[in-house]
Each structure stands twice: as structure tokens, then as C-alpha cells.
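dude i think i finally got it to work??
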Amino acid sequence: MGTFVACNSKALLHSMPFFQKTLRLPPYSRGFHLVTRLIEREMPELKNIRTGLLHVFIQHTSASLCLNENADPTVRMDFESHFNRMVPENAPYYQHNDEGPDDMPAHLKAALLGSSVSVPITEGKLNVGIWQGIYLCEHRDHASSRSLVLTAYGE
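look at this
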């Protein structure tokens, strides 16, 4: 069990390095796509952090992020089929459909899954479970590129 040491949090934050960059992803097809390795490759500054946190934020309202099973590709297919049943297209009660039948469902799916994930950094590496990965959850049929803001900090 770790120990907690009280400290001046303002002084600690000023001495702690912060790294931030925007990662522009190419367009992905609709579905759930593992992006963990891409994030690690684009954020080499992680190696400079012994103990810290990586926050990943997506700057879009029709795609989302989540942390989940990274080994079996059928999990990704099951996610997609479940969310399509849970949030159907062409529902007669949707008023917002300016960009097609996947428009409002994409916003709802993004709201359910969320726009960010935070992952601990330990000894310069993302401290995810053996079967965990970061997913870009693309909810549009014809999406454009997506932007992720990566913020890493720690000591």
C-alpha cells in the first residue's frame, strides 16, 4: 500500500513537467479502433515521467474515447452492434439530422461513452491492465479526421 505525504500542491505543480500536443488522426471507418500504440508513439515525453497521468481528450461531438479490452477483435464488433441497437438510426423522435441518419445517434453515443480518458503513467509507460487499450470510438459513417489533445504530467 502506498503512503500519502502532504505537500504544498501549488509548489508541486510548478515543479512538475507538463507536456501537451494535439494529435490529428486520419479518418477512421465507423467502429471502435485501438489507438494506444499510436498515442504512445506520438507522445515520447511519457518516457520522462516516472509517476504521472496522461489525459486524452477528443475535440469532437460525434466520436468518443473509452478504455477497454484490447486483445479480441470481436469485442470491437460487439461494441459497435450493441451501440447501434441501443441508439438506433432513423428514430422518428430525432429532430437533429442535418448531416444524415447517423448524425444524432453519433452525438448520443459520444455522450454515453465520453470525450476523455485518463491513464496513469508509471516508469515512463502507460500503466494499463494487460487486456486494456484506448479506443477511438467513431460513430459516423463518413467521418473526417479527428483531433486528440494529449496532456501528460508527473515527476
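The helical segments are 9-15, 36-42, 73-86, 103-113.
im so relieved honestly
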